[in-house]
Amino acid sequence: MTPIEYFYSAHSGYAYLGSAKLQAIAEASGRPLLHRPFDLRKTVAAVSGTANGSRSEAHRRYFFRREIERWSEEREAPIISHYPSHHANDPELANRLLIAAQQAGHRIDGLAHALLEAHWRDDADLADRATLQSVTEAAGLDAEALMEAVETEAVQAAYEANTAEAIERAIFGSPTYFVDGDMFYGQDRLELVARAIVRPYAGQSYRP
User: What is the pLDDT of residues 100-115, one digit of tens each?
Assistant: First the structure.
């Protein structure tokens, strides 16, 4: 069956909040998830989005705290009581780890969720190699081999390709899902994703 395309960054709060729900939708529908980890910061800048640092303090408090608190309760996805301590660190290594595991033939739904959960529930630093190795081992994968693979040209090329495609498709942020080419931005659209799988929405699919 046609996969659900899943564009996200490994440190995205809203990707975490929707992760378990998305996986349940995919399992129920029989559609696999096609993971597309990408450089969120580069993409937001390229598509003229507003970087976090450029938003007002009031906007940040609402969108990155109150909304996250409410959706955490709604989705039953526990979070720490403060903004992640290491959120400003570059998530590229974690994103490339996911790609490396995917290229090695692993189903990475569990690893993706574990990384997101570690960052938002446990305040983990996803730029730290030891942390990534620990999370990967706990997910039952060969952490040593995958941490070596993140440096390969094939993994780097895939990461750059995901980012280039995200820019080309004008993806506004993380997470973004595509069902048969129709774009849904944000985990608060997951109920719409589930409906679209069963019964596509009328009208022309949104393709930036």
Answer: 999 999 999 999 999 9
Q: Classify 140 as helix, strand or coil.
A: coil
Strand arrangement of the beta sheet that strand 4-8 belongs to: 33-37, 4-8, 176-179, 182-185
Whole-prediction pTM:
0.94
- Nearest CA to 35 out of 77, 96, 76 is that of 96
Q: Which of 33, 164, 154, 38 is nearest to 103 (CA)?
A: 154
The whole-angstrom separation of Cα 112 and Cα 164 is 21
User: What is the rounded distance in angstroms from the CA atom of residue 20 to the CA atom of residue 155?
Assistant: 26
Residue type, 70: R
Q: What is the pLDDT of residues 20-73, one digit of tens each?
A: 999 999 999 999 999 999 999 999 999 866 666 667 888 888 888 899 999 999
Distance of CA 111 to CAs 164, 171, 192, Å?
24, 23, 25
Determine the Cα–Cα distance for residues 33 and 94; give it in Å rounded to an integer.
18
* Residue 120 to residue 126: CA distance in whole angstroms: 10
Question: In whole numbers, what is the pLDDT of the chain averaged over residues?
Answer: 94
